[in-house]
Design a protein that fits this description.
- The complex is a heterodimer.
- Chain A has a single domain (about 60-285), classed as MetI-like (MetI-like fold, Orthogonal Bundle), CATH 1.10.3720.10.
- Chain A is built from 12 helices and 2 strands; from the N terminus they run αββααααααααααα.
- Chain A has helices spanning about 10-35, 55-60, 65-95, 100-105, 115-125, 130-135, 150-175, 180-185, 190-220, 225-230, 235-245, 250-285; strands spanning about 40, 45-50.
- Chain A has a two-stranded antiparallel sheet with strand order 1-2.
- In chain A, helix 2 packs across helix 12.
- The radius of gyration of chain A is 24 Å and the shape is globular.
- The termini of chain A are far apart.
- Residues about 280-285 of chain A have low confidence and may be disordered.
- By secondary structure, chain B is mainly alpha-helical.
- Chain B is built from 12 helices and no strands.
- Chain B has helices at about 1-10, 15-50, 70-75, 80-110, 120-130, 135-145, 155-180, 185-190, 195-225, 230-235, 240-250, 255-280.
- Chain B is globular, with a radius of gyration of 25 Å.
- The mean pLDDT of chain B is about 85.
- Classes of the chains: A mainly alpha, B mainly alpha.
- The interface between A and B is large, with 93 and 95 residues.
Chain lengths: ~290, ~290
């Protein structure tokens, strides 16, 4: 049956998966939109009433949380890129026969439960921890300065938690580069930095693009780092959604916030895809 | 970092002792930087493992007090921790099995057949991986809340959610292995009068088994680690990450580090075993 060219076979194979994703991914999106337009309260129950107020509140009351989420996610993505690119480059071109071991080291943090590795940062950055005491001795931090419960801690935590998502795609794209292209550039009297800028870096852009998305998307929706490493001043939109759902049971407002978050991320991705796309076209023709 | 440094060098493009000295420095700068990045990735893991041997005085396991083995001797000596770990394993086991079966069927359809709707199917598989977890969790919660009875929040809803987000990852993993595999072996079996079902179970399945196992292990790991979606759809049930979250507000027992370290070592062991198993497969088969 597997080899008969009957047109229906692939659909039969796909059926359970498509059904599951339709019922438990697409249909919930509809209910998210539906709930976001409800009004009422927990005791009288929520009813659908085209309550666009929920969206107005999302943009007014929670504007600062949205902006903060995008700022932190953007900052963490840039930091993850700055750390990952040299690291991936080093593994791809200097890793030798230990490449696979180094790759294992990159994904090692994923083997520790997300919450536990974030709590580990709490230990590292603690007021009586060794990092802070070294920084104080070097006078990089004032004697009453803190690391925990700061924006730095939250952004560092987000960067740490999503760094492998950035490093792996960049490594894959660097690893696939035909090194003869780089040699050819150098034979044609390109200096090594110039060969890097004109050959290696453009060829690794697909990995950078994928890594940026894989880092930015979960970072923008994160609330664990802000909760465990920050204070109410570092609360992100994820914290608000979480609290609206779990503590206040204000489902319509939480649903509206989720919807806006998803829309904001989609728009940013589209803008980013366009700018990266055009940039690649220009470097290709230059 | 690399880019900035190299642009400076590009502006004075003169070979000689200076450039060579600079190349030497840069070569080692990169290695030094890579070591720092590895430290950034691995220090929190070391902290988690080290503090599993700590003997904390208060309720919080944040400062080093003294070495003890008693946490490892009694890993479940904390109320409700054992039940949470058990629930996590049950959910991970059942959700990974279902997701692996559904996902493998989808991967077979996508690699083996050309059919109408292939692009849409790929998009539907990609979307759950590109959606922030908090949005997926919110949307599932609104679905479950709107339907009520058949989806009473708890074991069943957690299971449904985990299967949903695991399907995509299984498809991607299995598809990658299927794509590079030699179909001549199947054709040979058919030539030798094996019927399609026999061919599938005696030839195809054993050949793609490492890919399927890799998909299963990935799904299992993602399920055990998931916090955000589980937290939103869990009702009153508590998985291990949820236990950590709840505990972190009032206390952090060292047993959390013991379980976290154990998960880490088991995951690394499975990963190494899977890599070795795939090495054993004949060349060109996988």
């Amino acid at each position: 049956m597997l080899h008969s060219r009957r047109w229906i076979t692939p659909y039969l194979l796909l059926l359970p998966g498509l059904l599951w994703l339709a019922v438990f991914f697409l249909v919930p999106m509809y209910y998210l939109g539906y709930t976001s337009l409800e009004s009422g309260d927990l005791f009288t129950g929520y009813t659908f009433s085209w309550a666009w107020d929920n969206y107005r509140d999302a943009f007014t009351l929670y504007r600062s949380h949205f902006i903060r989420s995008l700022e932190y996610a953007g900052l963490a993505t840039i930091l993850a890129f700055l750390i990952s690119y040299p690291l991936a480059y080093w593994i791809a071109f200097r890793g030798g026969r230990w490449k696979n071991l180094f790759l294992l080291l990159i994904i090692a943090p994923f083997f520790v439960t997300y919450l536990i590795r974030t709590l580990a940062w709490k230990t590292i950055l603690a007021d009586d921890g060794f990092v802070l005491s070294i920084l104080r001795d070097l006078h990089l931090v004032s004697s009453d300065g803190r690391l925990l419960a700061t924006t730095t801690a939250v952004v560092a935590g987000i960067t740490y938690n999503f760094l492998p998502f950035m490093a792996l795609p960049i490594y894959v794209s660097l690893e696939q580069i035909d090194t003869r292209l780089i040699e050819a550039a150098e034979d044609l009297y390109a200096s090594r930095p110039r060969a890097f800028l004109k050959v290696t870096f453009p060829l690794s852009l697909p990995g950078v693009f994928a890594g940026t998305l894989l880092t930015f998307i979960p970072a923008a929706g994160d609330f664990i780092n802000a909760q465990l490493l920050g204070t109410p001043k570092q609360q992100m939109i994820g914290n608000v959604i979480e609290r609206r759902f779990k503590e206040v049971a204000d489902y319509p407002q939480a649903a509206a916030l989720s919807f806006v978050l998803m829309a904001a991320i989609l728009i940013l991705i589209l803008v980013y895809a366009r700018s990266v796309g055009t940039e690649r076209v220009t470097t290709g023709t230059a | 970092m690399t880019t900035a440094v190299e642009t400076v060098v590009a502006s004075r493009n003169r070979p000689g002792a200076l450039t060579r000295a600079w190349a030497f420095v840069r070569r080692h700068t990169l290695t030094f930087f890579a070591m720092l990045a590895f430290a950034y990735l691995l220090v929190p893991i070391a902290v988690v493992v080290a503090f599993s041997f700590n003997d904390p005085i208060g309720r919080f396991n944040f400062t080093w007090q003294g070495f003890t083995l008693k946490n490892w001797a009694h890993p479940f000596a904390y109320p409700d921790l054992g039940g949470a770990v058990r629930l996590s394993i049950e959910i991970a086991f059942f959700s990974s099995i279902v997701a692996t079966i559904i996902g493998t069927l989808m991967a077979l359809a996508l690699v083996r057949y050309q059919f109408r709707g292939q692009g849409a199917t790929n998009l539907l598989i990609f979307l759950p991986m590109a959606t922030p977890e908090i949005v997926m969790g919110s949307s599932l919660l609104t679905l479950f809340l709107n339907f009520g009875n058949p989806f009473k929040l708890g074991f069943i809803t957690i299971l449904i959610a985990h299967i949903m987000f695991n399907i995509s990852f299984v498809v991607v993993t299995v598809r990658a292995r299927l794509a590079g595999y030699d179909r001549h072996l199947e054709e040979a079996a058919m030539d030798l009068f094996a019927n399609p079902w026999v061919t599938f179970f005696r030839v195809t399945l054993p050949l793609i088994a490492p890919g399927i196992l890799a998909g299963f292990l990935l799904a299992f790991a993602l399920s055990v680690d998931d916090f955000v979606i589980t937290y939103l759809v869990s009702g009153a049930d508590v998985t291990f990450p949820l236990f950590v979250w709840g505990a972190a507000r009032v206390a952090i027992p060292p047993q959390i580090n013991v379980i976290g370290s154990a998960i880490f070592f088991i995951a690394v062991a499975f990963m190494l075993a899977n890599v070795l198993w795939q090495r054993r497969q004949p060349k060109g088969a996988v």
